[in-house]
Amino acid sequence: MPVKNRFADWLPEITEWRHDLHRNPELLFDTHRTAAFVADKLRAFGCDEVVEGLGRTGVVGVIEGRATGRTIGLRADMDALPIEEATGLDYASETPGKMHACGHDGHTAMLLGAARYLAETRNFAGRVAVIFQPAEEGGGGGREMVEDGMMERFGIEEVYGMHNWPGIPTGRFAIRPGPFFAATDVFDIVVTGRGSHAAKPQEGIDPTVIASHIVLALQTIASRNVDPVDQVVVSVTAVETSSNAYNVIPQRAILKGTVRTLDDRVRDLAQERLTRIAEQTALAFGGSAEVRYDRSYPVMNNHPDETDFAAEVARSVSGQCDKAALIMGGEDFAFMLNARPGAYILVGNGDTAAVHHPEYNFNDEAIPAGCSWWAEIVEQRLPIT
């Protein structure tokens, strides 16, 4: 069962929805215009219920099938990124410093297309909850919607999500069971020494030197503490000091960074080692270090049975479904998969710039395949007998 003809016919219209969203990017939970756009479309499609304000600015549309049955959730994310767009497109972002650099505009448009089809045909037994989530890019919008009681309120028993992926041929699919996207944690290390004149370092305790040793020592978490067959990424991404003067040894230095893991045991170990390395290294130089370690998104685990099903549906749409590689980026669909069984799949964006790049753009040619996969998830999982 290939790409549905209806989506090919609707491609120009769905593409225009996507371009409208692209022109008007919104960040985190501040997705008011996007949420209103989505809610208006869902009502126009004839959804049986449209609820706004879930998880602050999330939207859920409910579509009843022709017969009673279970409820499946389909989720798309809506937020953009704080990046200055450099695509030169005629529908480029009209908001300086914000752009859809991860394709959430495409995800939203594809799920809207699927919702329109499902509301029109209703060729399934049960209910569909189409979920439009804010704040995937670091805000934990998925967690907010789950904690707002979304699963219980709509009786969602399974949930499925999708992300476009540059480097995979357009419209093809890839997935894997079990750990798929990494847990993402962030840390701040405040190193305190004793400030002095740069010409008299012996009178101070240089926090910049201490911080430099900490940066190098943190790399031993991956090379000497974690089993080589496990995955961990420790990245120091920012270094600041309390002085910008050329002739001052500062009082403090601050390190910021991220830790990414695919196993809770490794996550615990990385946090413990990072804290001890920072504190003890600073102490060895006569200074001190205070560590703030925040756990953000958990590991995103695809459930085995639902992953097999999602792959079968992908093969029915495009004729193939490859095994995806492990991804050390984070994805807050993890919160929904922790609450209910389900699966997350990648749809190819073709040979494009990488996500989170100022020249990235969602590939509209992927729309029919993405819409078809979502529609087939429903029709095959909730067949009319």
General description of the model:
This protein is α/β, with parallel strands linked by helices and 385 residues long. The protein is built from 11 helices and 16 strands. The protein has an 8-stranded mixed sheet, with helices on both faces. Strands 10-12-8-13 form a 4-stranded antiparallel sheet. The radius of gyration is 24 Å and the shape is elongated. The chain starts with a helix and ends with a helix. The mean pLDDT is 97.
SSE blueprint and pairings:
Elements: H1 5-23, H2 32-45, E1 49-54, E2 58-64, E3 67-77, H3 104-121, E4 125-133, H4 141-147, H5 150-154, E5 158-166, E6 173-175, E7 178-181, E8 183-192, E9 196-197, H6 207-218, H7 220-225, E10 232-241, E11 248-249, E12 252-261, H8 264-284, E13 288-297, E14 300-302, H9 304-318, E15 322-323, H10 334-339, E16 342-350, H11 367-381
Parallel strand pairs: 3-4, 3-5, 5-16, 6-15
Antiparallel strand pairs: 1-2, 2-4, 6-16, 7-14, 8-12, 8-13, 9-11, 10-12
